[in-house]
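Here is the promised in-class demo. Please do not try to memorize the tokens; focus on the logic of going from shape to residues.
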């Protein structure tokens, strides 16, 4: 009795399945890393903006206190 998996066509099909699975996993991993980088960049930008706004508020409050 011959096994279906021992034929070259079946082995090629299994190789194709493995390559497809690996490419799907790699694509998902790259997409996840990209999303993480975008999220980290937005977080840093929002923190910088928050610091800038806080400095402007402090300058405004100081100028208001001096004018009184």
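The designed amino acids, position by position:
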């Amino acid at each position: 009795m011959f096994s279906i998996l021992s034929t070259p066509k079946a082995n090629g099909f299994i190789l194709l399945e493995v390559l497809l699975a690996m490419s799907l996993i790699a694509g998902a991993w790259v997409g996840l890393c990209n999303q993480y980088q975008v999220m980290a960049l937005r977080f840093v930008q929002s923190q910088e903006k928050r610091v800038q706004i806080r400095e402007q508020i402090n300058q405004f409050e100081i100028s208001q206190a001096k004018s009184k």
